[in-house]
Structure of Radical SAM/SPASM domain-containing protein:
Amino acid sequence: MLWLVLTTGKCNLTCDYCGGSFPKETVPWGVKYDINKLKVNIERDPNATVIFYGGEPLMNPKFIIQVMDTIRAKRWGIQTNGVAVRLLPEIYWKKMDVALLSIDGREEVTDKHRGKGIYKVVVKNASYLKSLGVETIARMAVTQDADIYEEVMHLLSLGVFDKVHWQLNVIWSERWDFENWAYSSYLPGIKRLMEYFMAELRKGRIVKIVPFLGVISAYFFKKYRGVACGAGYDSVSVSTDGRVLSCPIAVREKWAELGSLESFRLLEEPLPEECKVCEYKEYCGGRCLYTIHEKYWGEEGFKVVDEVTKEYLKIVLSRIDEIKGLIREGVINLEDLRYDPTEDSTEVIP
Ligand code: SF4
Ligand code: SF4
């Protein structure tokens, strides 16, 4: 199972997607529970992936060190904005399996939303982490400034990211003209990106674009029972106050509370009601539990995003027959297409 462990509610940046730190009353800036309670829970899980989360997790490096020194886990990782990487000593980085670094694509797009100079720092730090043997994942937030094809191809061309993943800046932000952008820019860009992915596949190379790989893997291996991020059934988030939540950003929402480190219950039926009759449910799992619950853009906004999700899924799934052919011909190995998003803490569906 995936354990997203919040180290602090504090953040050192104020990106315009989320605005920075959580208030201390909502997510304390230091850890308020006994670490042994975390240890008991995590060590009971033989398959534990622990990913440090925040706020900005590197704002509390001492806790990361304490956890890595005292708790046994199968896999370690971090979701970071990639700026304060030097606050964690190198020996701990060397123990990390994966680092997800926030970067939105080209320099001007990243710096516009995250702050001047951020792009250069993140690329430099990604290169440093990669040199230490940490797997690096570019974690993009995608909004109307993005040309998805250009941003993803740019990040892949840098050679410092092993995988690329993105999330759409929809529903949890202010309503914007998503539909115009989606049909004129985003979906055509996804088609081009899929062409590139397939061209490389024909050469026997799997380009690690998570929103493609996660859907293809669900087709061939394990279908999604609920949201692909695992929220509430394959993944839990431990807030700094010791509450156990289904989703790490739902720190104020009662529906997300599964219990505490003393005792909590996973969701028995993780697939959202809205998705039970959807033909794509096994490849999508409901996209995002948070946005299904919160629906900041109303029913209409939800439907608009959902239509775009279905179009993207169609683009990916339309290539399954060709992929089967490449497996039959021995161009690629089926096993190499296996992808478990809970090992990386990616959400698969943008
Ligand atoms: S495509 Fe939409 S309706 Fe279907 S499973 Fe995903 S979120 Fe649910
Ligand atoms: S995809 Fe949605 S439900 Fe899953 S972790 Fe992200 S915000 Fe939470």
Notes: The chain has a mean pLDDT of 97.
